[in-house]
């Protein structure tokens, strides 16, 4: 049989598994975000013990990601009372619709639940704004009206 038709192992033909990419910038977290990271690590450690060899590799990969996120977590300072900042809940009007979001860290973000990361373009546009201020967004100078700001 020709060498071209022999395969030494299945491992040779698998796609390489890279580490889970880390979001760029500082790893700011709320107290809730820090607790969520700890919960994720505990759940993955429990899953690791029960996993088969194939699953263990993937779980270990995610465990490295979350342990890195815990090690680099920076608890954000208390936000100012009258300014859109990390750790605030903001009500605003965009395109005639009133919306409300919480500004949180990258790992805590859940857009469907109204939790946006501080690195999201919409949030970056509003950072530093105060109540009743109009903010430029998406090419319009007065696209966003800040209605109310409160701590999370």
TrEMBL record:
Residues 1-25 are annotated as: Disordered. Gene3D superfamilies: Transcription elongation factor, GreA/GreB, C-terminal domain. The keyword Protein biosynthesis applies. Residues 80-149 form the Transcription elongation factor GreA/GreB C-terminal domain. SUPFAM superfamilies: FKBP-like (SSF54534). GO terms for biological process: regulation of DNA-templated transcription elongation. Signal peptide: none annotated. It comes from the Bacteria. GO terms for molecular function: DNA binding; translation elongation factor activity. Keywords: Elongation factor, Protein biosynthesis. Residues 1-18 have a biased composition (Basic and acidic residues). InterPro entries: GreA/GreB_C_sf (IPR036953), Tscrpt_elong_fac_GreA/B_C (IPR001437). This is Transcription elongation factor GreB. The lineage of its organism: Bacteria, Pseudomonadati, Pseudomonadota, Alphaproteobacteria, Sphingomonadales. The gene is greB_1.
């Amino acid at each position: 049989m020709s060498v071209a038709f022999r395969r030494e192992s299945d491992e040779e033909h698998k796609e390489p598994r890279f580490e889970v990419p880390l979001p760029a910038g500082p790893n700011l977290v709320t107290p809730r975000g820090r607790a969520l990271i700890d919960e994720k690590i505990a759940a993955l450690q429990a899953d690791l013990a029960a996993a088969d060899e194939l699953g263990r590799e993937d779980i270990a990969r995610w465990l490295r990601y979350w342990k890195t996120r815990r090690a680099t977590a920076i608890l954000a300072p208390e936000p100012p009372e009258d300014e859109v900042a990390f750790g605030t809940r903001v009500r605003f009007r965009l395109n005639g619709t009133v919306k409300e979001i919480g500004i949180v860290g990258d790992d805590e973000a859940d857009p469907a639940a109204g939790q946006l990361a501080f690195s999201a373009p919409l949030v970056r546009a509003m950072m530093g704004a105060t109540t009743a201020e109009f903010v430029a967004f998406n090419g319009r100078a007065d696209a966003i009206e800040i209605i109310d700001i409160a701590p999370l």
